[in-house]
Amino acid sequence: MKWLVLLPVVLPACLAQQITEAHPVSAAAMRDAVERVEQMTKDLQTDLKTYHQQLLGSMFKLGYGQYHPVFSTRINGFETRPFDLEDFNEFKMGRLAFDMKSQGTELMPDPFIVWAGVQQRLNGFNDTLDKARRVVVRTSIVDANSSRNIPDEEFKRLMNRWRAAVKRATDQYEHAIAVRAVQYDKGVMVPSPPSIRWTSGGTNAATICGLGVCPP
C-alpha cells in the first residue's frame, strides 16, 4: 500500500515529521477535530461574556460604571501601533475589582469565581488545539489504493472551516489574555500583568501617539 503525502499548507516541523508515520483519516475524523475547536471557542466565549457581565455588574453596584474616568486610557506615549482599547479598559476594571476584593470589599456578583473557569479553559487551550491539528495534518495523507479518501470538495470545505475555527479560537484566546486581571497560582488568586492586545485597527482600537504626533 502506498501513501501520497499532500502539503496544502505550511506545517510546523514537529507535525510535518509525524506525517510519514501516520495513516489517512476520514472526513468524519476531520470534522470531529474541527468541531472540538469550535466548541472550545464557544465555551470560552460564553465564559468570557459571563465574566464581563458580572464584572460590570459588581463594579456598577460599587459606583463604578463602565465609562468611569478611572478606566479611561490616556493615549499618549511613544508607540504608534493601534491596540484594543476595550480589552485594556476591561483589564483595568478587573484589576481594580481585584484590589478592592483584596482589601475586603465584597463583590456582588463575584466575577472571579467565573474567571476560575476561564483559566481552566485557557490552561487546556493549546492541548486541545494541538490534538485537533494532528488530525488535520494527517488529512494531507492519501491512500492511493483506497476509495475512502476525503473527496476534494468536502476536503476543501472542511479545510476552510478548520482555518476559520483556528482563527476564531486564537482571537478568543488573545482576548482572554488581554482582559485577564488575575491568575490562580496553586489555588491562590494573584494579579496578572497587563497584556496589550495589538491590532490592525478597527472600531475598538486606539492609537498611542508618539511624541504627540499621531499617524494620519
How far apart the termini lie comes to: 61 Å
* Uncertain stretches of 5 or more adjacent residues: 1-10, 210-216
Rounded mean pLDDT score: 82
Order of helices and strands: EHHEEHHEHEEEE
Name the helicity range. 40-55%
Q: How many strand elements?
A: 8
Q: Main sheet?
A: 2 strands, antiparallel
Helical segment count: 5
Strand order of the largest sheet: 1-4
Shape: elongated
What does this structure look like?
It contains five helices and eight strands, in the order βααββααβαββββ. With 216 residues, the chain is mainly alpha-helical. The protein has one domain. The strands form four sheets. Strands 1-4 form a two-stranded antiparallel ribbon. A two-stranded parallel sheet has the order 2-8. It has a two-stranded antiparallel ribbon with strand order 3-7. The longest helix has 35 residues. It starts with a strand and ends in a 6-residue tail after the last strand.
Task: Describe the structure concisely.
The protein is mainly alpha-helical and 216 residues long.
Question: Topology of this structure?
Answer:
Blueprint: E1 3-5, H1 13-19, H2 27-61, E2 76-77, E3 82-84, H3 85-102, H4 111-138, E4 141-143, H5 152-179, E5 182-185, E6 188-191, E7 205-207, E8 209-210
Parallel strand pairs: 2-8
Antiparallel strand pairs: 1-4, 3-7, 5-6
